[in-house]
Structures are given as structure tokens and as C-alpha cells.
Amino acid sequence: MQTQLPARFGVSPQMDVAPTSDRSALRWAGVGGIVFATTVIVQNVLKGASAPANDANSASIVAYFVQHAPIESLLVVMFTVGGFGLAVFAGGVWARCTDLNPRTHHWAQTGVLGVAGIVALFSALVACEIVLLTAAARADLGMQIVALAWLLHNAIFGVLTLSIAVALLGLSQAAVGSGLIHPSFRLIGVVGACLLAFNTALAPLIVASSSPLMAVGLVGFAGWVAFVIVTSYKLLRS
What we know:
By secondary structure, this protein is mostly helical. The chain is 77% helix and 0% strand.
């Protein structure tokens, strides 16, 4: 935000002066991004290699959710916290980028729409895990419910990467275009988005099997997490 102040106050007319409330909001956005990235990393560490494979049978899935019930419950809490953090982060990036360069408005808006898709689809993903957690503790629900919920869980995860691709592409291009982050993230954003979108395009091949093609999406996801961390740091210093 450009604020014109008289020269007698010792401030250059071109100096970028942000009100205290704006700086505070940007710092909250930075904290939100760090919180989101932290919860994502911790979630993946907690699950690790112990999570059932996409093509796991119903008995293995039930056994996992019975043995890891406390961890799965904790993951739901972390999703709640991380979801708030991501929403605040996205709003902060949009506000800061359009403030620094109004021409980045469309890219920023695209990124925020992608974040909305992430929150919606990840909510559905977590809902499936809650169903699986509940079904594992109730024998009367039967193995068919478990199998169906697991397939739906994997299918949602497969299409979720498209929303991450849109969020990464839009927000990275806006952040680079406004000078908020290093220009190298322009390429990182494009490549990461393409890899994530490619993962979604291959979802029918991945959902019911442990295909090595999932590694393609993981590389793009790493670019997304790196973008969130770096941009959050920049917002904290705004």
C-alpha cells in the first residue's frame, strides 16, 4: 500500500508504509502457513510406511485403524488446525500480492480457489478416515463398508492433487509477480503444478493399486510445501 506522507515527517513519498493492522494480519498469515506446513509434515511422519497400501484388503485396513486409533484421532485434530492455517495463509498471500502488484490479482484469485478445493476435498478425505476408524471398532458394519470407504478415500486423494496444483500455480505466480518471493518459484510452481495434475490424470491407475506413479505427485507436493514455508517466512517479515 502506497501512502503519501509530507516530506517534513522524514518519510520518502515512495516509501511503502503498511498500517500496523495490515502487518499484524500478514504475520498471522505467515504463522498460518507455517502451522499448515508443520501439520502436513507431522501427519506424513506419523503415518509413514505403516499406512495401508491402496490395494490392501479389508482385514488389513481394519487392523491398521484398530491399532492406530489414537494416531488417527490426532490426525483429525491436526487437520482442523492446519485447515485454519491454510485458509489464513491463502488470504494473506492474496492480500499482499495484490497490494504489491495489482496485476497479480487473477493469479492470486486462482490460487485461493485452489485452496478452497483443497479444504473441501481434504475434509471429505478425513471424513472417510473417520468412517474407517468407526467401522474398525464396529464389527456389525461389515467388511464391505470398509472396502467401499477405503476406495472412496483413495479416489478423493487422487483428485485432491488437482486442487493442490491449482493452488500452487496461482499463488506461486502471484507471489513471484509481486516480488514477494524469489523468481525461481515461478518455474517450481509450474513444474510442481504439472506433476500434481498428472497425478490426478492417472488416478484410475493409482486408486486400487500401489503404483510407483504416485511418486510423480509426491515431487509436486514437495514443491507445494516448500512454497508455503518460504512464502510464510516472507509474510512474517512483511
